[in-house]
């Protein structure tokens, strides 16, 4: 009887917590095919997936066709604008483009670059900032109606929102092993070109329970691209992620943070929400525009913020990268101190109480308080059935719910930091909070 009650209550919490967002996107992704079941992934044991030596990991491989088939004729050219290789004239792209009412698109110009590659902001009123152009003003509150609102900090206090851009990196085995050992889940913003180059890396990300999000096809400043190019960058990167992970992102991060209301509008047509950040480690710059010591100083300053009460009313989303061995090593070296300084270190979906971070609704994330809660005794996790889908009973382990055919829902105490005090999920309605309290009572008492 308790399990039935918990099932109903959790279902209501899920529906209430996701009701506030704009549900624009079409069902374009449902025509895509994948052989990957995100709930049952076995990664081939080859040198590239097992070695800890970067040079061995980064030897190109052809994926097992029983898992992933890549026909280059069906994809844009790797690391070039996603309209290349005739992809802007493919039947699927033209069908998607034709399904969008472009008469409603904002009349915002395509930006240009200066000779040095920087964005040309001449003539743009940065103070009025009519287009909510992040690169000009760090604007995170769109001026345009009917676009998904930016995510830029964690609702939950004293929380480090863990996120890594530019993956999957071919040499990330040791880094992902470390995250797994620490039972840490992050939001991984994957580049479509990297996913097709290193598909087993993307499989590793979803298998380990990370929140997979989009970082475009070719990592260009998005405001400098035409509407067709922006649409293609989203479409083919989402499709690549779907091919290699079995899930389709609903969240994306603009390369360099470069987004305005025109790009947000196109993203919204695909059901995508923009995620930026509140703190930037500048880890990518180590040894380039900043010294390694300067970047280490950034980490130290952010760790101190976790100790001195800076984030007692809300948390932060931190920009970091898996772009190279330096950035990944910086993460490994600093995460133990981050774990000591912050009450909670979780992925963005969890810290924002995002129930459904993917277009598919057979993967759902726990509300924050359940994700971080320990069993009353501190021993074995509580279990409960939460529903079914076409693959069988829906079950949950750690941060997110999976369809494995087993009738158990596990809020793992090992995955939790253990809340020292209750945190507010501000975008959940009072009724949802009440239901969540009932669920917690049923689970732990």
TrEMBL record:
| UniProt-annotated location(s) | Cell membrane; Secreted, Cell wall
The alphabetized UniProt keywords are: Carbohydrate metabolism, Cell membrane, Cell wall, Cell wall biogenesis/degradation, Chitin degradation, Cobalt, Glycoprotein, GPI-anchor, Hydrolase, Lipoprotein, Membrane, Metal-binding, Polysaccharide degradation, Secreted, Signal
Q: Name the coenzymes or cofactors required.
A: Co(2+)
User: What's its catalytic activity?
Assistant: [(1->4)-N-acetyl-beta-D-glucosaminyl](n) + n H2O = chitosan + n acetate
Primary enzyme class: hydrolase
Report the leader peptide range: 1-19
Ranges for domain NodB homology come to 158-351
Query: Which family does the entry's similarity section mention?
Result: Belongs to the polysaccharide deacetylase family.
Q: Which GO terms describe its biological process?
A: cell wall organization; chitin catabolic process; fungal-type cell wall biogenesis; polysaccharide catabolic process
- Descriptive protein name: chitin deacetylase
Which organism is this entry from? Answer: Apophysomyces ossiformis
Please name the GO terms that the record assigns under molecular function: chitin deacetylase activity; metal ion binding
- Membrane topology type: Lipid-anchor; GPI-anchor
Keyword Lipoprotein appears in the UniProt entry: yes
Q: Sorted alphabetically, which CDD domains does this protein's record hold?
A: CE4_MrCDA_like
Q: Name one GO cellular component term.
A: side of membrane
Q: Using the UniProt record, give the first listed, main subcellular location.
A: membrane
- Reported EC number(s) for this entry are 3.5.1.41
């Amino acid at each position: 009887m308790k399990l039935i009650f918990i099932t109903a209550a959790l279902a209501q919490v899920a529906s209430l917590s996701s009701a506030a967002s704009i549900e624009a996107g079409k069902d374009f992704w449902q025509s895509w095919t994948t052989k990957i079941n995100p709930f049952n992934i076995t990664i081939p044991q080859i040198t590239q997936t097992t070695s800890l030596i970067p040079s061995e990991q980064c030897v190109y491989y052809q994926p097992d066709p029983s898992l992933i088939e890549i026909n280059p004729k069906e994809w844009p050219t790797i690391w070039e604008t996603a309209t290349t290789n005739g992809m802007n004239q493919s039947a699927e792209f033209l069908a998607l483009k034709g399904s969008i009412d472009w008469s409603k698109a904002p009349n915002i110009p395509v930006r240009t670059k200066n000779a040095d590659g920087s964005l040309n902001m001449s003539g743009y009123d940065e103070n009025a900032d009519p287009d909510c152009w992040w690169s000009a003003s760090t604007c995170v509150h769109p001026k345009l109606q009917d676009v998904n609102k930016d995510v830029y900090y964690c609702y939950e206090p004293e929380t480090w929102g863990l996120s890594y851009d530019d993956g999957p990196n071919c040499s990330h085995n040791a880094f992902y092993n470390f995250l797994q050992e620490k039972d840490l889940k992050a939001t991984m913003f994957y580049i479509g070109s990297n996913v097709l180059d290193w598909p087993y890396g993307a499989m590793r990300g979803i298998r380990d329970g990370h929140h997979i999000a989009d970082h475009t096809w070719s990592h260009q400043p998005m405001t400098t691209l035409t509407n067709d190019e922006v649409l293609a960058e989203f479409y083919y990167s989402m499709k690549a992620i779907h091919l290699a992970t079995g899930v389709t992102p609903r969240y994306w991060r603009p390369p360099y943070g470069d987004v305005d209301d025109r790009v947000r509008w196109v993203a919204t047509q695909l059901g995508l929400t923009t995620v930026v950040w509140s703190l930037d480690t500048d880890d990518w710059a180590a040894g380039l525009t900043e010294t390694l010591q300067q970047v280490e100083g950034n980490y130290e300053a952010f760790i101190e913020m976790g100790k001195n009460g800076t984030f007692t009313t809300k948390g932060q989303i931190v920009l970091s990268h898996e772009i190279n061995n330096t950035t990944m090593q910086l993460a490994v070296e600093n995460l133990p101190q981050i774990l000591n300084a912050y009450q909670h270190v979780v992925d963005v979906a969890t810290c924002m109480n995002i129930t459904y971070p993917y277009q598919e609704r057979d993967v759902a994330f726990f509300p924050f308080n359940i994700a971080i809660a320990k069993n009353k005794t501190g021993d074995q996790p509580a279990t409960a059935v939460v529903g079914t889908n076409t693959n069988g009973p829906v079950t949950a382990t750690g941060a997110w719910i999976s369809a494995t055919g087993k009738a158990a829902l596990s809020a793992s105490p090992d995955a939790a930091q253990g809340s020292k005090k209750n945190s507010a999920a501000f975008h959940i309605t009072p009724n949802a909070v009440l239901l969540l309290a009932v669920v917690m009572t049923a689970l732990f008492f």
